[in-house]
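Repro:
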Amino acid sequence: MITVLPFGYARGKANGNSVAFLFHFKEKVMFEGNSALGFCMVLAIILLTTKFLGLVFRKIGLPQVLGYIIAGIIIGPAIFGDFCGFSLIGFEGKDYWCFLALPEDNALSIFSKIGVLFLMFSTGLETNLKELKSAGLASTLIACAGVAVPMLFGILIALPFSELGLGVTNIYNCVFIGAILTATSVAITVSVLKELGKINSKLGTTIVSAAIIDDVIGIVVLSVVTGMAKGGATGDLTGFAWFKAQWWGTLIMIVAFFVVGIGLGFGISKLFRWLEKKWPNTHRLPVFSIVVCFFYAWLAEEVFGVADITGAFLAGIILSTAHHSSEYTDKKVEVNTYTIFAPVFFANIGISSISFSEGMSGWLFLFAVLAVLLGLIGKIVGCGAVAKCFKYSWRESTIAGVGMMARGEVALIVTGKAMEAGLPKEFMLMTVLLILVSSILTPILLKVLYGKGKDKELPPSDGDGANGAFVEEIVDSPAVENLGINTSDK
């Protein structure tokens, strides 16, 4: 006879002896993860496993974020819960035993949201507007091609897979696939170019500038697509809600957000310059900066229907104009981001967004492989073709394309926002595979391509002035180090 007792205990009798079991037989849960201390234990497991696997991946030359995601897969139900019947961190009501159980709507999603906002805010803080203005026509057009061609390839490859929730009847999901393929990871390319001594070459600075512009364009594209998708999925509406639900209304709201955001930004930038003079290098500046970040994220999502990460990114760009305070703020924000919020965000992808039993099929794996292949080819073809138009050699044009094909944390962020807007969560597999393959291939191909022309030194940029300093800022950025990229010369 077994009697279920409060607090998740069960007591039974075996051969006349009372036996206590430390779990709840009905819900298959050892401890509840939705209590305050239970959630602290969830965080402890996530931080320990992400740090360990992050270091392992860093040792083998891959981004730490991949280690974070795989840590989430291991401690979550994706493998052991679904196939072995036991998971360290699981969800209530599921058919497996778990050490810590979370409700479907849990605090991890809140931590993840803060993590992604901090990541985009930090990216904005590290963006140098003056250097972007002087990046030149070549970098801008390479970035545009690096967005347009992979996005077109992604949409085209998604159209035949209607059985996966894509196809013409789910056109917004197809566009989301294209948007995911547009992202570029500047950290991986920068580390390889620095190692090869090409970071300050003309082509090197062109690639780095194009990669940053690429992400800016990609985030704006994501805002447009998510706004339209939400509008297309809305039922009968009236008034202002109906206006925002129309595709033209979405575009108007996006333009309005940037007008309002940039308009407010002039006043905010002046305010922070005054604060910097009054209280230089004090904790007030990071606190006020985070307030601006959260306000812009709320303003973007709730008022204008724009992706919240766009608001956080714009807030970072605005505050980057107050140069010294932005550097100080970035260092303080990144301590919190990469200590707790970013690991939780990436691990939560593996815990809640990836399952190898629900929705997985041979068609999904086939689609993921084809999408990854076209995503890589799209960058090489699009960016390389534009570079060739600017009289780079065939080898240099190929280097430009390969240098733009690495993916990282931005691709994960875009995928997360796409899933919030309706993309099935199974497609996170495609993004993880894309990051893994591109992270491995990009350094190898760059070294091979540069090796072929090692006797022909590429022309340097205009001295080690503006562009050289700009690249060094990126190389020395804490984010590059925290992502687990080795930027040391060998």
